[in-house]
Amino acid sequence: MTIDKSIPNATAKRLSIYYRTFKRFHAAKVEKASSKQIAEAIGIDSATVRRDFSYFGELGRRGFGYDVEKLMNFFAELLNDNAITSVALIGVGNLGSAMLNYKFHERNKMKIAMAFDIKGNPLVGTTTPEGTPIYDFADIKEKIAQTDIKTAIITVPSNNSQEVADELIRAGIKGILSFSPINLTLPKDVVVQYVDLTSELQTLLYFMRNNKG
Fold first, then answer.
1. Helix (H, G, I), strand (E, B) or coil at 54
2. pTM reported for the whole predicted model
3. What does the pLDDT average to over 135-141?
4. 92 labelled as ligand-binding?
5. Which residues, as ranges, make up the DNA-binding region of this protein (predicted)?
6. Residue 175 annotated as lining a ligand binding site
7. Does 96 show up as a binding residue in the annotation?
8. Is 9 marked within a binding site?
């Protein structure tokens, strides 16, 4: 299942949050959930929940709430979480190493199948305790070609991120999650999401200073 391009980006970004929420409800043996309950669990208003869900047709019935198991399975299919998605990691420094140790597969069906760094990194040529091989970045095109990997995570210094992204495109990557604060120049058929930890922290501090509660 693919996401309709007419769906607003703000809604699309909440899809995984809805999925996690319904998984949590299901684990707690909640069978039905109202838009208010869903909204409170996520931290948004119930009108936003109903508007988001309206893009996908009839997901629930007024007065009856939403079937938790049905919606959990719906979002699993929507997000392709019924099949394991393999991802490549580029940059095995402090952040990259932390991501290698993060157990994605325990929370969803994603896994870092291989990692890359330059030869100067002593981890190149080794395998993590979880079984993830760490290769020389110079071999990335060859290694990616041997897999069905189409997604990559970049955790390299900012001044190297565009060069790395260019090489990923040549290797056939179609989706990039970048932890670099600079915008990448990419072909239109390549999707990119940015994670700027400094910006997120600054935003948090701003809201803390202006919290009237």
1. helix
2. 0.68
3. 96
4. yes
5. 17-56
6. no
7. yes
8. no
In a domain, 112, yes or no: yes
Longest pairwise C-alpha distance within the chain = 62
| Residues 162, 131 share a domain | yes
Give the whole-angstrom CA distance, residue 120 versus residue 41. Answer: 46
Which of 78, 98, 133 marks a domain boundary? 78
Task: For residues 29 and 96, give the distance between their C-alpha atoms in angstroms, rounded to a whole number.
Answer: 36
- Helix or strand run (H / E) with residue 153: strand 151-154
The residue-averaged pLDDT of 20-35 equals: 90
CA 192 from chain centre, in angstroms, equals: 11
Residue 39 counted as domain residue: yes
Q: Count the residues in the chain.
A: 213
Q: For residue 91, say whether it is annotated as part of any ligand binding site.
A: yes
Tokens of 212: 């009237």
Mean pLDDT across the stretch 126-147?
94
Q: Is 93 annotated as a binding residue?
A: yes
Let me know whether 71 and 167 are in one domain: no
